[in-house]
Amino acid sequence: MKKLLLLLLITCISLTGVFANGQEEAGASAQVEMNSHALEDAVNGYFANLPANNYKIGQKDIVDMVIAGKDMVILDIRQADVYGESHLKGAVNVPWGNELYNQLKYIPRDKEVFINCYSGQTAGQAVALLNIAGINARSINLGWNFGISKVEGLDAAIETEANFLDTSKTWETDPQIDAAYKAYYEGLAGVKGTTFGNYKISEDNAKKILDAGDTDVAFLSIRQAKHFAEGHIETATNLPWGKGMNEMFASLPADKKIVVYCYSGQTAGQTVAGLKLLGYDAVSMNGGMGVGANAPIGWSNKGYPVVK
Question: 269: closest CA among 163, 145, 119, 165?
Fold first, then answer.
């Protein structure tokens, strides 16, 4: 009898161990499955909850905030030599590219972050990436060349002294998102100096592709439907920029390079960042359709044709 009881006890303990191990393995599998969707969920969440300000701030507004001494972080992602000539007071130089990934862990999650580039287009890409990583960021409308530099009273808001991020504190990013960002910025090195440098394409090269009838390239307008109807690039389809636009991403061709264009290139930059993280081969068109008749960039300002 004692031997029988002992045998039953050993069996129960063994089964308990197997059950517990099974629970642990199931729990680990569920955790891996949950983490595998972190990037996709974050990207879709970004577009599903687009704020009225479109993750941007007006150029005059940011200048006024600098003059008022607002506590915030300004990332100037222009090249170091240009940043050194003049930048907004307090702005930190983190040049567009791998350095943005290298500095990601030092960008505060407890302050508003504003991003400046040349025209707002690469800032658009950066602002999408930072928000998807959990950073409260907005890009500065039209960047330095077409936005900030045109603001009256700018002299009171600029300096040449260099500023740096606080590296005494680091912030964590979801591992899957972190890995995707590393790949995103490393990918830039492979396109610099090519037709698709910085995940962008010039209006001139876009026109060449259109004229060549390249069926491996699709044009996507994210302008509003009424403006698309008034005139758009031939062969382009329309997916208007706005809250919930991610619900239509599945309709985009996964086997083609997608040239995304908007009005000035800023929201196209945001869209390209999201699409690339989701696995699409997307680039934005420089200057969009063009804002302002005297602007040197943009499809319409180049005199290129549109269809209705």
Answer: 119
Domain limits, CATH 3.40.250.10, in the chain = 47-159, 195-302
CATH T-level fold of 47-159? Oxidized Rhodanese; domain 1 (3.40.250)
CA 83 from centroid of its chain's CA atoms? 21
Residues 64-102 have pLDDT tens digits of 999 999 999 999 999 999 999 999 999 999 999 999 999
- For residue 270, give the 3-state DSSP assignment: helix
H/E stretch holding 138 reads: strand 137-140
Sheet holding 281-285, edge to edge: 200-201, 281-285, 257-261, 217-221, 237-238
Mean residue pLDDT of the chain comes to 89
118/137 Cα distance (integer angstroms): 17
pTM: 0.86
